[in-house]
Design brief:
The structure is a homodimer. Chain A is of the alpha+beta class and about 600 residues long. In chain A, about 55% of the residues lie in helices and about 10% in strands. Chain A folds into 3 domains: about 10-290, Butyryl-CoA Dehydrogenase, subunit A, domain 2 (Beta Barrel), CATH 2.40.110.20; about 295-330 and about 335-440, Butyryl-CoA Dehydrogenase, subunit A, domain 3; about 445-585. In chain A, strands 3, 4, 5, 6, 7, 10 and 11 form a 7-stranded mixed beta sheet that branches. In chain A, strands 1-2 form a two-stranded antiparallel sheet. Chain A has a two-stranded antiparallel ribbon with strand order 8-9. At the A-B interface, helix 10, helix 11, helix 12, helix 13 and helix 14 of A face helix 10, helix 11, helix 12, helix 13 and helix 14 of B.
């Protein structure tokens, strides 16, 4: 049996009851994306991932990616199988599914793309990063590219024949994008010449595609300092002629790839731009503003990397726990599979319940992104986008923290075997660790949550969400003895969240450092309450309409989360409301 | 500047105020181990670790250990520098310090040995595992070896000229030692012939020493099933003649070494015993009972591996945070080192406070082990040993969980650079992950805590400890405005611990599964309360007698722990008292 099977029943249930896909598919352009058609796509994609992508995961980790070829024009060679499987991915058109039909996309909602990302990441996260970065570049060009740029680049990028990259980071500018120093000098023909060094460029160079479209943040001469002076440029590896054919090699060269703890198959490149031809995307000095347009989808996608790893790890741990006979539980007459030990149960249920909560959060967040783009009413679009803005730091921050926690629990279930590379658990754990760092560290997610998102509309966005959660809690409380305790715990959690939110809004308004000091535990608290709420909705829906076995499992899972995971928020309130003083009581030297 | 400097001021403070070394050194045999002499040893040892051992850490990770040599009698070659540095370690006599002077030991308290282990693990955990396993074998032989065995083996093992191993695990017997199948057949000369396969044998074969003394669990013919039928055998790699010289090669062969996520320099061997000559240690079928004699020291030592990694990771993160300029904190006019960001402060203080609490716990636990062996009064010895028994699962479980958490925080402080292997943070994180697994998984530590340790003397051992903690809390509450809030938080934490303890004792008495279901969160809760208590003692002691700067830092650290770390225990009480039902609501198939 394969290490992983796409959890299609769970995905279908979430698409039906959390996303409301049949409602979503009534929006203009999504008419073909009803639940049955969507599940047919996901089923077929799942087979592709299990048959083709999953087998490349371990070999990719073992071989990594390496700089090779002509020293004057080096390239990066990926691990065995990557090139062939990527070609099949392009050939089948899997990358096109959630993109605009006008440029060769499948025209499915973004939510469906997120479901595909989950599955692809469960198969091979390092492989999934090539389409992921292309998606980032695509988002940027769809939103801000000129008509000419769109016609020339989008079809090949939507199909995946060309991949894309995002070039933000420089040696002295990590999280601080405003410190970018790469220069963009205007040329007489209206193009620019780009010069500078970019680091941590995912799939910045590789052998999977015939061209690579780099989107590069740089400064024009005389641009204002900081983030306000940053422009975005399109810099293709090979210049593209007007007819779409490939022209001369452009002045961008891979210098090296990083030797990383995980995602080793994904080449993380240092790129040198030397008088490279670049095309301005949108307006000069608007680069940072443009980055924010794509932030929700990109950050959600990184959260989904976490979800995919969690699911892959959980399935292996569950299987191992069912098979491995060790020790005798109290009262048992003989040795038993370790799944019968209470502490192993605790680990497995923590994994299962957290994953189901996380999947609901991610798909719900994706739905808000879809609604934010496609609802006919502008005010409703804006409200949906605001909710997506509030949820995205949770999707990214919690999803990627859970990625480390849950892959670690899977190792623990395996014991010593999990620490040995052959079982593949260690790779999941190593791969997972980057997700809390890139696309904005989780500290930055938390700062975004308390600094930008909570204050939206004077706190009304979070207040509206809490009102919605309270309504679900009340419904649970009145829905019989199996569901009522879930409602009770949710009420308790919401009370704590309310206190924390009020504290942060009140204290952060006069002193932003107070909000920042509370940010990380607040992100966790908020995520767990939202997770408990979404599992409550699932328990209600399953009780109403799912087969008895599925419904019983949903209720038991929601109950476990409510009793064992959600209440940890009570332990976070004191650190949130303790304030910043303890953090600054010591000087940097005294630490 | 080196990546690591032994935290001698902290260690000295803990030895003085938590261990009471000057009191301890009044016990018979320890007279030379006063604080000044001990610190002189530690200072010199710290220099050795920084100058010699630390430089082998990364090369050891890169090269690992490999099976090599004659296919009929293979050996294991360790990484560059290991052999030379180990020879210097033996030559200087560092391994002898905490052992019985009668066999060439330095006669220092075990607590001093623990301090040395912390430093050695900060330098190179994989290297430290060779002496660690020798220590395990030594403990066994000191306690249960025959006089002849002691004379023949102990001097060379105390010096480190010969190393030792512990052979418990077999392919189908991981945590379940009772399932051991290795056979020991009596020979006419009173020795035994050992046949079977052992796995996960740390430094089971290597090139550091001229002989390796394996202690092997095996079954004699007709022995009862389960743990009651297990005997312990001494099986030297080279047989030892009566005059101590090395004789024939014994029938034990390395088959392979594991390809592990971390501690790659430490060879984890599969050993094949084929009619190997073995000598019974102690009585037949007493092997498991003997294992328990050495359990506290071995488990504490694994916790100390965690402590050493935490300290190494913290020092690097702290240095990086002081130097790395990124972003502008609210109100600042220019970019600042990231140590000035509230969220980075939260990470660094979480690390610092947790490490200081953990060090206090480990050294206090070691002190109890010393008292349990050396107090003149048998009843007081027994009481000290009981307290060590209660604390050891905390030392191991919490210490090794923190190892993963704190090395992870260090990576987070480094951002993307932490994920790149060159900075060395990733190695600490990878190395750390094994510590929660071996020497009894942390789940087993938690089961030991609730199943064996809490019920000691009908719950009086834990009740006595809580009474002692309450006394400290009251003292803090009366010690002025800086210390009183620490006392208040400790009182809150103790109230929660009291409830949890009563729940487990009451419910576990009628249904052991109830206790086991609560075990893991209870271990965490208990550890954090004990940690807060010990930091409270340190804050009181520092206020009384330390220099002003040191005292202020101690108080601020204890205050941070009390306000931000300790209160998370409130979030653990609900999951402890929720009981087992949620864990068993689903069948294994429904998970």
């Amino acid at each position: 049996m394969a290490d992983y099977a796409p959890p299609l029943d769970e995905i279908r249930f979430v698409l039906e009851h959390i996303v409301g896909l049949d409602e979503l598919s009534k929006l203009e352009g999504f008419e073909h994306a009803d639940l049955e058609s969507t599940m047919a796509v996901l089923e077929e994609f799942g087979r592709f991932v299990v048959d083709k992508v999953l087998p490349t995961n371990r070999v990719g980790d073992e071989q990594g990616s390496h700089v090779t070829g002509d020293p004057d024009d080096p390239t990066v060679v990926t691990a065995d199988g990557f090139k062939e499987v990527y070609a099949q991915y392009v050939e089948a058109g899997w990358g096109t599914v959630p993109f605009d039909a006008g440029f060769g996309g499948g025209g499915f909602p973004w939510t469906v793309g997120v479901a595909m990302q989950e599955i692809l990441n469960s198969g091979n996260m390092a492989f999934a990063m090539a389409p992921l970065l292309t998606q980032g570049a695509l988002d940027m060009l769809f939103a801000h590219g000129s008509e000419e740029q769109k016609q020339l680049y989008l079809p090949k990028m939507v199909s995946g024949e060309w991949t894309g990259t995002m070039n933000l980071t420089e040696p002295d500018a990590g999280s601080d994008v405003g410190a970018v120093r790469t220069r963009a000098v205007p040329a007489v023909d209206g193009t620019y010449r780009i010069t500078g060094t970019k680091i941590y460029i995912t799939f910045g160079e590789h052998d999977l595609a015939e061209n690579i479209v780099h989107l590069v943040l740089a400064r024009t001469p005389g641009a204002p300092p900081g983030t306000k002076g940053i422009s975005c440029f399109l810099v293709p590896k090979h210049l593209v002629e007007a007819d779409g054919s490939l022209g001369a090699r452009n002045g961008v060269t891979v210098v090296s790839v990083e030797h990383k703890m995980g995602i080793r198959a994904s080449p993380t490149c240092v790129l040198e731009y030397d008088d490279a031809v670049g095309y301005l995307v949108g307006d000069e000095s608007a680069g940072m503003r443009y980055m924010f347009t794509m932030m929700n989808t990109a950050r959600l996608s990184v959260g989904v990397e976490g979800l995919g790893l969690c699911e892959a790890a959980y399935q292996r741990a569950r299987q191992h726990a069912r098979e491995r006979v060790q020790g005798r539980p109290p009262g048992a007459s003989a040795g038993a599979p370790i799944v019968e030990h209470a502490d192993v149960r605790r680990m497995l249920l923590t994994m299962k319940a957290s994953i189901e909560a996380l999947r609901a959060l991610h798909y719900f967040d994706a739905r808000q992104i879809d609604l934010g783009h496609h609802l006919p009413d502008p005010a409703e679009r804006a409200a949906a986008a605001e909710l997506a803005g509030l949820l995205t730091p949770l999707s990214k921050g919690w999803g990627t923290d859970l990625a480390s926690e849950i892959t670690s629990l899977a190792i623990q279930v395996f014991g010593g075997m999990g620490y040995v590379e052959e079982t593949g658990l260690a790779q999941l754990y190593r791969d997972a660790r980057i997700t809390a760092i890139y696309e904005g560290t989780n500290g930055i997610q938390a700062m975004d949550l308390v600094g930008r998102k909570l204050p939206m509309r004077g706190g009304r966005v979070v207040a509206d969400l809490m009102a919605q959660m309270r309504a679900t809690a009340r419904e649970l409380q009145g829905a019989g003895e199996d569901l009522a305790p879930i409602g009770d715990r949710l009420v308790d959690g919401l009370a704590v969240l309310q206190q924390a939110t009020e504290w942060i809004l009140a204290n952060g308004a006069t002193d932003p450092v107070q909000a920042l000091a509370a940010a990380t535990p607040y992100l966790r608290m908020c995520s767990q309450v939202v997770g408990g709420w979404l599992l409550g909705i699932e328990a209600l829906a399953a009780t109403r309409s799912a087969p008895a076995g599925f419904a019983a499992a949903k209720v038991a899972t929601a109950r476990f989360f409510a009793d064992h995971v959600l209440p940890t928020v009570h332990g976070l309130l004191p650190t949130i409301t303790a304030g910043k003083d303890d953090l600054f009581a010591l000087s940097a030297d005294q630490l």
